């Protein structure tokens, strides 16, 4: 669709420079990616901080020819994390790989896989966090199939960061409802501003309750995070995050 063509166009332009990553601000929405990625990093950190460390391995599903989310997160926020970028289009991956090939750090930490995510199975167990781009699953049935597939293969406790439609463009993308996150515990939803088309939904892969009720010494533990009572009222989460990062009102278009 049009956004993919825009990304491919600018990926080609950036790829003509000796070090493309030094010229990312030529992409007209780069500043929006900086803001959204900072927000997503803060949301991610809030829910991942219990582990006491940054995620080691992150997957981005639907990374495209200009994988700015992965690039920005890897460059500024998750500086030791390995990023596995999945796209069904081999030419998109070729363009994306070229952008980071001249960077000694990112070229070692960004891996590109050409695959339909529905064909990726056991590899998904190896990721601490999975990002799902808004463009993956262009109708709600397809989107739910992808989410169900991720629920089947992601590791228990791993986080799913999902971008959904918001604002004036809800008619372009399926809006993911909490009840469609089968196999995941909804942690929070953030709608940045009426002008922003992406909301951010974060959830945690629910562990098998049969295996989770006892630890190695046989003691019973109440895992409140799996209980419905631990769900935050969504209105409160909206308020919390909107107060937390008001400058995002300037963001206009982020589809990836």
Automatic annotation (TrEMBL):
The keyword Lipid metabolism does not apply. It holds the Pfam family NAS. Synthesizes nicotianamine, a polyamine which serves as a sensor for the physiological iron status within the plant, and/or might be involved in the transport of iron. This is Nicotianamine synthase. It comes from the Eukaryota. Belongs to the nicotianamine synthase (NAS)-like family. The keyword Transferase applies. It catalyses: 3 S-adenosyl-L-methionine = nicotianamine + 3 S-methyl-5'-thioadenosine + 3 H(+). GO terms for biological process: nicotianamine biosynthetic process. GO terms for molecular function: nicotianamine synthase activity. It comes from Lactuca saligna. Keywords: S-adenosyl-L-methionine, Transferase. PROSITE patterns: NAS (PS51142). Its EC number is 2.5.1.43. It is an enzyme of class 2 (transferase).
């Amino acid at each position: 669709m049009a956004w993919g063509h825009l990304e491919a166009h600018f990926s080609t332009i950036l790829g003509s420079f000796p070090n493309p990553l030094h010229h990312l601000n030529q992409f007209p929405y780069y500043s929006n990616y900086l803001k959204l990625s900072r927000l997503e990093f803060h949301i991610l950190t809030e829910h991942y901080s219990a582990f006491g460390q940054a995620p080691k391995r992150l997957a981005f599903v639907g990374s495209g020819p200009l994988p700015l989310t992965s690039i920005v997160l890897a460059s500024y926020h998750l500086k030791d994390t390995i990023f596995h970028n999945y796209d069904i289009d081999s030419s998109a991956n070729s363009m994306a790989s070229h952008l980071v090939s001249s960077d000694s750090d990112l070229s070692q930490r960004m891996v590109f896989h050409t695959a339909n995510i529905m064909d990726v199975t056991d590899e998904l167990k190896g990721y601490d966090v999975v990002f799902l781009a808004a463009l993956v699953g262009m109708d709600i049935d397809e989107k739910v199939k992808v989410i169900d597939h991720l629920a089947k293969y992601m590791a228990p406790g791993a986080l799913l960061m999902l971008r959904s439609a918001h604002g004036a463009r809800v008619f372009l993308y399926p809006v993911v409802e909490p009840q469609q996150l089968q196999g995941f515990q909804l942690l929070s939803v953030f709608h940045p501003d009426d002008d922003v088309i992406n909301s951010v939904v974060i959830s945690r892969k629910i562990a098998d309750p049969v295996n989770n009720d006892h630890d190695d010494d046989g003691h019973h533990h109440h895992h409140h995070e799996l209980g419905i009572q631990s769900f935050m009222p969504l209105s409160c989460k909206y308020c919390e995050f909107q107060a937390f990062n008001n400058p995002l009102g300037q963001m206009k278009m982020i589809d990836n």
